[in-house]
Amino acid sequence: MVNCEKEPAPGADDRQLLEQAAAGDPASFDSLMDRYCRPFVRLAYSLVGDAAAAEDVVQETFLAAFSGMRSFRWAASVRTWLVSILVRQAARHRRREGLRKHALLEEAEAKPAGDAVRQADMKMDLAWALEGLDERYRQAIVLREIEGLSYDEIARVLSVPRGTVESRLHRARAALREKLSGRGR
Q1: How far are the Cα atoms of 2, 75, 108, 143 from residue 34, in angstroms, in the given order?
Q2: pLDDT band for position 120 (cuts 50, 70, 90)
Q3: What pLDDT, on a 0 to 100 scale, did the predictor assign at position 139?
Q4: Has this prediction a pTM greater than 0.90?
Q5: 17's torsion region: left (phi>0), alpha (psi -120 to 50) or beta?
Q6: Cβ contacts of residue 105 below 8 Å, gap of 6+?
Q7: What is the mean pLDDT of the chain?
Q8: Helices assigned H by DSSP within the chain
Q9: From CA 140, how far away is CA 52, in angstroms rounded?
Q10: Which of these, 42, 33, 31, lies nearest to 145 by C-alpha position?
Q11: What residue segments make up the domains of the chain, in order of their start?
Q12: Which is more confidently placed, 10 or 29?
């Protein structure tokens, strides 16, 4: 189980932490995990649609990163490298588990009133629409619109040319528009 309770410690940048961890300092890798735990759980949740599964994916991501940190290519950013591992782990998890249904958003379980109801409905509609996307398109749209990665960063994470990223994003947006327009959004 991933523990995201610790606040990331200020100090060294990602590259320094990875270099120190690769040199045998496990506390440096712990600091890197603390830094990315929360955002990675959110990203994993966007990709797999289940909170417990998201934590598993993040744990698998950090395990894979720890065992493969000596193979890190220093041309990439540490964050991009970690996100690419997370995306692969999420895809493996979806294949392995055969997840096809998105869990309801936690906020929707509460009974909000007024505008909050409409916002919860919109979030549920968006989660439903994302779940229905082909995995390649869902990965691209989540990395761009939720994680805020640039087209070049997405290309590195997904190991595809930038033009493929642009094409996938275009198709993902069109598919989302079509799905959501059928729901009056």
Answers
A1: 10, 23, 28, 20
A2: low
A3: 86
A4: no
A5: alpha
A6: 120, 123, 124, 127
A7: 78
A8: 14-22, 26-48, 51-68, 78-97, 106-109, 115-132, 135-141, 151-158, 162-181
A9: 22
A10: 42
A11: 1-101, 108-185
A12: 29
Reported as a pLDDT band with limits 50, 70 and 90, residue 98 is: low
Distance, CA of 123 to CA of 120 (rounded, Å): 5
For 1-101, the fitting CATH number among 1.10.1740.10, 3.40.250.10, 2.40.50.140, 2.60.40.1580 is 1.10.1740.10
Residue whose entry in the numeric block shows the structure tokens 């906020």:
107
Residue 36 corresponds to which tokens in the numbers above?
């990315």
Residue of higher predicted confidence among 65 and 126? 65
Both tokens of residue 81? Answer: 């490298």
**Burial degree of 178 (CB within 10 A; 0-12, 13-18, 19+):** exposed
Query: What is the mean pLDDT of the segment spanning 110-120?
Result: 57
Mean local confidence (pLDDT), 124-138: 79
Structure tokens at 109: 């379980």
Give percent of the chain above pLDDT 90. 9
Check: CB of residue 174 under 8 Å from CB of residue 129. no
Token look-up 């079509």 returns 178
C-alpha to C-alpha distance for 150 and 93, rounded to whole angstroms: 25
